[in-house]
Amino acid sequence: MSKAQSQDILVLEEKQPKRKKKGDKGDSDPRKDFPRGWLVKTLCKTFWQNLLLSVAFKLVHDGLVFVSPQLLKLLIAFVSDEESFAWQGYLYAILLFLTALIQSLCLQQYFSLCFQLGINVRASLIAAIYKKVGMALATRKESTVGETVNLMSADAQRFMDTANFVHQLWSSPLQIILSIVFLWRELGPSVLAGIAVIVLLIPINGFLVRNMKNKDERMKTMNEILNGIKILKLFAWEPSFEKRVNEVRARELKDLVNFSYLQSISIFLFTCVSLASFAVYVLVDENNILDAQKAFTAISLFNVLRFPMAMLPMVLSSLVQVSLKKGQGVQGDLMIPLPKPTHKAQVCDGATFAWEQDGNAVIRDVTLDIAPGSLVAVVGAVGSGKSSLVSAMLGEMENIKGHVNIQGSLAYVPQQAWIQNATLKDNILFGSELDETRYRQVIKACALLPDLELLPAGDQTEIGEKGINLSGGQKQRVSLARAVYSNADIYVLDDPLSAVDAHVGKYLFEHVLGPKGLLQKKTRILVTHSISFLPQVDNIVVLVAGAVSEHGSYSTLLANRGAFAQFLNLYGSQEEDASEKNTTGTGNTTGLQQLEGPCICLGVVKTLGPDPSVKFSMYLRYLHAVGLWYSFWVAMGYVGQYVAFVGTNLWLSAWTDDAQHYLNQTYPTEQRDLRIGVFGALGVSQALFLLFATILSARGAMRASRVMHQQLLSNILRVPMSFFDTTPTGRIVNRFAKDIFTIDETIPMSFRSWLSCFMAIISTLLMISLATPFFALVIIPLSIFYYFVLRFYVSTSRQLRRLDSVTRSPIYSHFGETVSGLSVIRAFGHQERFLQQNESTMDINQKSVYAWIVSNRWLAIRLEFVGSLVVFFSALLAVISKGTLEGGIVGLSVSSALNHCRVQPLLMLLCPQAPWVTEKRPPHGWPSKGEIQFVDYKVRYRPELELVLQGITCNIGSTEKVGVVGRTGAGKSSLTNCLFRVLEAAGGTIIIDEVDIATIGLHDLRQNLTIIPQDPVLFSGTLRMNLDPFDQYTDEEVWKALELAHLKTYVQDLPEGLLHLVSEAGENLSVGQRQLVCLARALLRKAKILILDEATAAVDLETDHLIQTTIRSEFADCTVLTIAHRLHTIMDSNRVMVLQAGRIVEYDSPEELLKKHGVFSAMAKDAGITNTETTVL
């Protein structure tokens, strides 16, 4: 995409209309502030050269279209006139050939230019959507990721398709007017009968506007499913979400099939056009005798008329769709100006902020003055507005009053680490130049050196999407390293120490954040729940309900004896003890074991595969999805239509020869009626066969769409987690956006076109051969040429289509990644770099799209050349056979040859699955005791990787509380994954209450266990749906769970209560509140076995205390496994399991283990724990 072009479309300033139009009554719609129609104007300004050149080619082509019927008329006259000279006939044949050839060349040049315009428009729009929706604050709140991915895939594609045919807007009316003029010359006013039928089509085409709302909703839900797939699997919630998607899909398909029915009716009506005209012509006046010249010239003209008449409504309806989209989203969204990154000072002056301009204030009257180089801690309970204050400082919230003034550059570490799909080194450098010394310094300070030794390729290891192959602690340290390396003036840190172990947190504070750390001279604003660091900070800001309740130094606040001092007295001593002594290694472990195998490198080659051909079984699979009976009857319908078509033309040919027989006589009425009757019957049967075939194919295509989407969705929900770990989300989204669009719309159309083209070619060759038998000799060499061209084209085109699909996925992946890390990108001021990266990703895709377009034109030129030769030989043989042929036969032969057409190939894909429910069901009420036995259990992440659990054998008794500890990579999180069969056994068994879990269905297992995961994942929908998607529990039970999770008062204060809408990924709740919602889920399910995976990292001490108390009381009669990253949380367990390199090295009560002087006591000693009474509770 050229620089000028991208500037022209992207840098659009916000313009307010200068004056209101007459009759404009106020500003009911905020969108009215935007100038209307700027998008089309901008596109015209940018691509005017392309537009003008294509207009020139189209004009030449349209002119030549009307030359062929006139030449045909002259040729029929030449054959009918015995006294004409032979050279005239040869001249007409050559002229017909040249006309067809020039017409073909002009048309292909025109199409080539149009398709270039289309891909340029698509690229410009995707870049503009990325820039505005991705980078502008206001737009992001209006559009969900699903809607935007849809804008970028289906809607940008629609703009592209419209751009391809935009010239039909003037070309179609021009061709229609010229056709009517020429037809009037042939048939006089009778032509109005045919025109009347065509006019009937216009209102039908008006209804062909499609509803895109359902598609947006389906893509939004799919996006959420893919982002929260692990939670869906752990809770066995797939059926609920599958049902949600299928309901939306059913509505989408209903629109689709109505659209297809209307299309069928319009095709049916069009088939009756020539029938109506000829019947009226003959019936109006008995002197009107239909001769060959009139009939076949008229048929050629009706054939010319067919294309613009079919195209005009299609272009108009796609324009309506595009303008609807433009009104709904694209145009408005693209107009919103980009916020200027104003990196401003550290002063808040009576600032009040809300998430929306007219929303409730979340941060109220905050006045802060932060001195340069100071370390300020922000503390407060869950939901008190700490993260909101950070967002306000970064300019992510709407400023209602007051101002924030920040001087200097910013670096930001979010609460949930954002990791790019790139190498570890690229994640830390984040676009900055490499300074080796500083880089080493930062890695050491952020405790990443031990991790680099574990990673297969050191800092060159490619990190999967969303940091899939790093543990939570490692992600957080990489995120911190990125900020430290950027060497900014001001550091905003949103609780970065919660995801790491306490002793690592202490190390990071000392070496990075604290008074002696790397950032000692920088301004640091640290949100934290950790009390132990507070004595070392310069200033503490205490937030309560979005307002500053007190601020000052640690000693000042203690002396004030306010709420903060009471809180400190309650928790301070315990926390200090615990944090001095806390442990478990260098970070937390989710998924780290994958790192011991080769790194996940996601490349293009993986998808292309070795075999470029589409197997016949793929086509059969599609036909099976359509239904074999449907397929058979659709084919029969088309055969019937073309049999009637050949019959109609042969009958017409015989009818026109009557003009010779009754040259100077009155045309008998009964003969006329017979001719009209049979012609009418054949014409109507042709139209009915076509209607039958198109309606059946619409139903069949809808069935195929439903079946294939169902299979795809069902497979995606059933594949193991390892599939999601190694497949970029963008690639899966592409399957559901672009490929489903292909199955819904492109394949049925291609299938119908292919069938009708195939039948048309057969019938055309048949008719020409009937007229001039010698033509059969010409068919053979032409067919051989045709076959080789097609064979060469199909394999090339197929690979180019695959390349297009493979290079398209990274566009969506990159977009999804940008949206999730937007606050980081904006804080660092890297918008420009991401825009450029988006453009280069798009350019790679454009290359394959452009190559595909050119290959299509290559094919079209050659196939149309074959068509031109068919016209030439049929005319030439007619001239040679002069005297033996009737004018009607010549007309039939050449007019058939003039009406030829082109073909296109198609293809498809899908994947494997595991059963949710098997024949063997566990007994009712299982597990009743909650006993777990591991018997020589081994597991690996993928077949080619090393074992991560190397033969674990242990028994966990009923209602026992077991803590699981170990250093990073010991296999703690793998153990929980095995219980839920997220990882399948490589050997050995797990037995729960005498049932081998490998023998029962996944849902029977997962519905009877409960986990409170490390990353709290919520879905868009109501709060109640997030707790109970199947509506299995009463409202009382839900409120009880919320009360126990300490969320009841918060939810009661919400206007909608349980029906409060949670935004995408739960963004309108704080991370701590999301964690409490996950606790409420577990309380609601109340399974006999509970697994806690570092469930309280993101909450403050008070809430942590409440959660631990709730778990102790509510799950007293359950078996509880706690994966501990902080030793103090498991010191009161019945037993502690110590893992090392995938093996159990110690397993006993904490008291016994401390006496033994083994691994656990060494870890405890590191942390300073000497007896089991040292616990936070």
From TrEMBL:
Does this entry carry the keyword Nucleotidyltransferase? no
Topology with regard to the membrane?
Multi-pass membrane protein
Phylogenetic placement of the source organism: Eukaryota, Metazoa, Chordata, Craniata, Vertebrata
Which family is this protein grouped under?
Belongs to the ABC transporter superfamily. ABCC family. Conjugate transporter (TC 3.A.1.208) subfamily.
- Transmembrane segments in this chain: where? 89-107, 190-209, 259-283, 295-316, 628-654, 674-698, 751-768, 774-794, 859-880
Q: Which GO terms describe its molecular function?
A: ABC-type glutathione S-conjugate transporter activity; ATP binding; ATP hydrolysis activity
- InterPro entries the record matches: AAA+_ATPase, ABC1_TM_dom, ABC1_TM_sf, ABC_transporter-like_ATP-bd, ABC_transporter-like_CS, ABC_transporter_C-like, P-loop_NTPase
Alphabetically ordered keywords of this record: ATP-binding, Membrane, Nucleotide-binding, Repeat, Translocase, Transmembrane, Transmembrane helix, Transport, Vacuole
Q: Which Gene3D superfamilies match?
A: ABC transporter type 1, transmembrane domain, P-loop containing nucleotide triphosphate hydrolases
CC terms in the record's Gene Ontology section: apical plasma membrane; lytic vacuole; vacuolar membrane
Matching entries from PROSITE patterns are given as:
ABC_TM1F (PS50929), ABC_TRANSPORTER_1 (PS00211), ABC_TRANSPORTER_2 (PS50893)
- Report the source organism: Accipiter nisus (Eurasian sparrowhawk)
What name has this protein been given in UniProt? ABC-type glutathione-S-conjugate transporter
What enzyme category does the UniProt record give? translocase
What are the start and end residues of every segment in region (Disordered)?
A: 1-31
Q: Which domain of life is it from?
A: Eukaryota
| Enzymatic reactions | leukotriene C4(in) + ATP + H2O = leukotriene C4(out) + ADP + phosphate + H(+)
Cellular location of this protein? Vacuole membrane
Q: What is its EC number?
A: 7.6.2.3
